[in-house]
# Entry
Amino acid sequence: MKAQNYGSSDYLKTQDDIYHYIDAALEDGHPKVLLEALKNVAKAKGGMANLAKETGLNRESLYKALSQDGNPRYETLTTIIKAMGFRLSVSPLDSAA
# Structure
């Protein structure tokens, strides 16, 4: 029996799943975690070619921006996140605040 590789994108079935996944990546605080999460979401939502179509950015630029060495501009990140059906927002660190 051949073992299957685990892929996060296989478990991102709903917008709610994706929301919690991206939110956890943002909470982690490490930029590379967010880039990997966005890459996995792109895969779950039809791949980089589909994301390129949705964002108007070229596929090669998206691969570079979301790579481990990527350092995308704020505008690129917000364009990607908007194409995924979300927006960036701010919330207090202390839920009582």
Q: What stands out?
A: The CA atoms of residues 51 and 57 lie 8 Å apart. The radius of gyration is 14 Å. The mean pLDDT is 91. Residues 31-87 form a domain with the 434 Repressor (Amino-terminal Domain) fold (CATH 1.10.260).
